[in-house]
Amino acid sequence: MCPFSNSITSHEILSGVGGAPNPELLQHDGAMDSSRQQRAVPDHGRTPSLVHRMKHDKSILALAVSSQYIFAGTQGGEILAYSLDTYELRRTIEAHRGSVLSLALSQDQSLLFSSATDPIVNVWCTSTFSRLYALWSPYDLGDIFCVAYSAYHKTLYLGAQNTSIQWYDLKQKDVRPQPNPASHPSERKNRFFDSTGPGGVSTPRPQGADVTLRDAVGGQYLEIDRQDVHQFAHYGYVNCMLLGKRILPEAPAEEVLVSGGGDGRIVLWRIDATGGGAISSLFTLEDGREEGESILSLARDGSFLYSGRFDGEVNVWDLETRQLVRSLKAATGDVLTLSLGGGHLFAGGVSGVVQKYNQHYETVSTFKAHEGLILASNFTTRNGKPTFVTGGNDNTIVIWEVPDCEGRGTDAKRSNNDLMVESLNQFVSFKTVSSLPKYRADCRRGASYLRSVFQNFGAATEMLNTSEPYNPIVFAKFRGNPASAASRKKILFYGHYDVIAAENEQAKWKHDPFTLTGEGGYLYGRGISDNKGPIMAAIYAAHELANEQYLGSDILFLIEGEEESGSRGFAQAVKAKKELIGDVDWILLANSYWLDDHVPCLTYGLRGVIHATVQIESKHPDLHSGVDGSALLDEPLKDLVMLLSKLAGSHGKVQIPGFYDPILPLAEDEEKLYSEITTTLLRGNPDLGDAEELAQSLMRRWREASLTIHRFQTSGPDNSTIIPRLAKASLSLRLVPNQEASEVARLLEDFLQSEFFQLGSKNSLKVTIDHQAEPWLGDFTSPIFQTLESAIMSVWGPTLGRRRNSVHAVKHNLDYFTPNPNSGSDDRPSPTTSNALANGSGEPDEQKFVAQKPLYIREGGSIPSIRFLEKEFDAPAAHLPCGQASDSAHLDNERLRLVNLYNSKKIFKKVFSELPLR
Amino acid sequence: MCRFMVYKGKDEILLSELILNPTHSILTQSFDSRLRLDTRRPHNGDGFGIGYYTLPSLGPEPCVFTSTIPAWNCINLSRIASKTKSSLIFAHVRATTEGNLSDQNCHPFSYKRLMFMHNGGIGSFKRIKMKLAMSLNERWFTLVQGSTDSEWAFALLLDCLDKAGHDPDTDAGIGQSVLRRGILKTIERINALIKEAVGRDVVGEEDSRSLLNFAVTDGESVVCSRYVSSRTDEAASLFWSSGTSWKESSASTKPSAEPGQKDYVMERRDKGSDIVLVASEPLTFERDNWVTVPTNSTLTIHKQTVMIHPIIDDFYSPNPAHTRSAGFAQAKGQTITGPDKVVLQERVNGEGSGNGSPDPRSKEVIREAISRLTVG
């Protein structure tokens, strides 16, 4: 997707980091097909870039953005509150019985007003999300299309389907008599709806009409006075309103209400402060057209007013002369929303396209933002970052970054978190797939990009070459404060920039795997969680500390490019450059996952692995079984099957003599860790079953060795009459401490050879050890784990309650959890796979529980380098899992939650600064 | 008094989705109309009609299908409705107030591309009929085939358009503002004729108040009126609903009262009005879907935009809290006139016209009913 990816130069790489970001490289809205066409036209960074996308299951009709939250009104009557920091859904407010049509914030952002197709206007507290007031009209007003609130007059205005504008002076709320409960719109007797049919029976209310909404309860009931109504404010629906000062040139201090209607008129209203906020028409903006050319949207900038109409018409009105100054023709279709900000006008509409204008009303860019209609938009500048938000009937909310905004010069500060995501955005775009030779160049580019990131942050770097053709290792060193030079400790961070292949031929990825895409609080992309995200978090943590002059130790980085391919050449290269790397006090890596999606973990053990190929070959060529098949012939495949059958007994027990001997018994404090894990997991997911069984299944995978036969391969054509000349099988053994990989490999070879000998076959056996990695067991009571634990607790907080999830949380298949009904007398634990743990998370669950500490876990997988580094540098290692169980590392749609990324950076920062003090 | 319904959509809809299937479809309204007080004769069984515009290739005129049998008994109606789609549909079920049972008297009426229907009645019609007829150009006078006040109102509307310089013969659309002015002029002329005929002594054996709920379309725009020539009475009921799709309610699991009927909802996925429905009575019992058309106003549907204009004349009140009595319109609903019909005196008498000495019990009943009805 990156236009420069074929010919990237160091200059271009550098320009993407730190200083002025290279806008072309920042493009990552690759999720949209049409945006690709857009990309063809070089627009020099004027097209806003897609930062994040939040998916819902219903149309998004209204948006309001506060300093903390994005509020979105949906077709289902909900108001969604997303964090503006992490884009996580913080709350789903069940607010209305029908589509939420309008949201407005009070000036101080303490109140949120919502209107919908039900005849109630709700007023919410933006900190507690509770309802403060429920307000209704005594009249039958239909849908309430818009609300506006005057903080100055403390008066709320609403514009409705029945052409009226009505208002309520909140100053009077306690003075006016309390409304009769019978006047509530759903209690009112209606001469039609409560009428009786033949037989004197009234028609029951349709189902769903009496459903009580979870959040639309409580608060004070307010009824609009029968006279606080302006009938026929428009001769059409009152589609939109805005309210502000400096609208009237002759009275800039006066607050004026502006409304646009289905009749095609824009009316400016004087607010009578003494008359309870009553409005009277000041003047009407008209362009002499026939009625009915609806005003669909309004926006104002000083004395200029913009109105959106059908077929992409955007009008510019001068409020001083009350004239139509210009009419623009946007490619948006009916202009359903207009937003102003950063010196730009954004128009969005039916075609899903946003057209961006500058102050001279020239089109700066046009881009596809939604697959359906764009129904709402908002512009906000937060921490100096101009942000544009759109919502549409494709059920999504999209956050856009607008890079070329006014007043965003050098002084505009961008948060490190944003820069970190930006760096990741580029890092992920390099297809650093180590297993496929065609990506060798991409791997190199990725490595040199990574190096440039270090260089930009002032780290000393070097590229450590491995034996050709393997990918180089990036080495970097952040020096601690010179003051502490003598006693400076050294922390080595180990990671890998290579990734598992993601060809996406079956299009199972929601987005291009090598285009970082933000969605629903997560970043999606190959390698984001394994291991590029955690690497970047560690780099930024070191950089921030160095910047703040708090770096009391040296932080070394060894980021290799062959981890996913068995760390080819790593050990040799590190050994060769040991001088350069120097001494190391601690080793840290971040290349695994939590057990579920909620409770942070620390990994203190990994299994080792041996990959072996067993091959049996005969002297004959491939033969035909009808012609040559006989008891006299030793068939290689038959031999192989007989041989392999000796390896494992029933229930997976490995039959290699001495295989289990070195394995450590279960210590008491270790057992305690397992019970902590099961208690925590079961509290969150009672469906996981019995605690003892769960602990057993975890132990089987973490602290017990295992053997797997992966596949058979045979020579000759693939049909059922061939006696293959050659047969081979791939198998692997997962090892646990204290099994030495080389020792087990020797045992395996000896065992196979002796068993083969007993077969008395004329064929020949060849056993190859393709790869081996040592198991690793850290000391979870050591200072490095203690430091990590306290950092995790201070960053994630002591209460790791599950937040109430959104209503539309994906329902996972829970079948995994149900113990196998056929297991019957079999007392072996049913296999609770890693999948089950990941899938079990994310279910809506109201209960909260407290996990005081991170869970200490082990993993069934292997990272070859960790034990090697421990041995080589004689330093203890610790492993911090950054991602959640549902991150889908190595799978399609790999992702990392933004909160995890941000918090991982915080944890690294704490560890980097606190560990040396231990 | 009759019931009618208008559909104007961005897309075509199957007639049965409006006419047959909804819980309170126009077909249901023909035997179960709720906003009439008459429990003995609640039927709109004096014929019905549907009119809809077809593919432009078949010409600009609407297809109109009327019958004098009750809608609920017409097997052809359900056959046609479940296989016909249109984006602009008029439907009408009739309870005669004027004119007898005949095909010519069934709404909707059409002329070239114009289509018209009426719910209500012209006050003192017998006293103004001749003057009305005489005021028309000959081509509109000769157009009238039947004997209803409604058809004469249509002729009057055509005359108004003609005299304002908009020939109804034109192949092009007439346009929403011309249609609206035509309706206003028609109402104005009816009022003037009545005023001239009855003078100041308004109340007599025949009521001079008119209930003029008209619907007219040129095949593109629709103008409906909800009107009563009184300051104190409410007009005959008229509701509208707009949204993005007309869908069978997914929440509907209960068996409905009538076989084949379903709960429908007007969905709103965006703020547009892709579908606009206007009806004498809501087609569903979804409260939040239906809005009352203000008394004495016109509702215009133009390019899927709904506009509402007040009809400002002697009978208009600018006060939003102005209350009107629903008694007259309801009483009209049970007033049956015509040579073969008897006026149900005992329940109508006194309300509205204020004469006679009704027995106190029935007056009480009506007063209660009215007070119950005016709350909403």
From TrEMBL, chain A:
Pfam families: M20_dimer (PF07687), Peptidase_M20 (PF01546), WD40 (PF00400). Gene3D superfamilies: 3.30.70.360, YVTN repeat-like/Quinoprotein amine dehydrogenase, Zn peptidases. Residues 13-48, 175-209, 816-846 are annotated as: Disordered. One of its GO terms (biological process) is proteolysis. InterPro entries: Cyt/Met_Dipeptidase (IPR051458), GSH_degradosome_Dug2 (IPR017149), Peptidase_M20 (IPR002933), Peptidase_M20_dimer (IPR011650), WD40/YVTN_repeat-like_dom_sf (IPR015943), WD40_repeat_CS (IPR019775), WD40_repeat_dom_sf (IPR036322), WD40_rpt (IPR001680). Residues 605-755 form the Peptidase M20 dimerisation domain. The keyword Ion transport does not apply. Residues 819-838 have a biased composition (Polar residues). The keyword Nucleus does not apply. GO terms for molecular function: metal ion binding; peptidase activity. Belongs to the peptidase M20A family. This is WD repeat domain-containing protein. It comes from Paraphaeosphaeria minitans.
TrEMBL record, chain B:
GO terms for biological process: glutathione catabolic process. Residues 2-268 form the Glutamine amidotransferase type-2 domain. Keywords: Glutamine amidotransferase. PROSITE patterns: GATASE_TYPE_2. It comes from the Eukaryota. It holds the Pfam family GATase_4. The keyword Transport does not apply. InterPro entries: EgtC-like (IPR026869), Gamma-glu_amide_hydrolase (IPR052373), GATase_2_dom (IPR017932), Ntn_hydrolases_N (IPR029055). One of its GO terms (molecular function) is omega peptidase activity. The keyword Cytoplasm does not apply. GO terms for cellular component: cytoplasm; glutathione hydrolase complex. This is Glucosamine 6-phosphate synthetase. It comes from Paraphaeosphaeria minitans. The lineage of its organism: Eukaryota, Fungi, Dikarya, Ascomycota, Pezizomycotina.
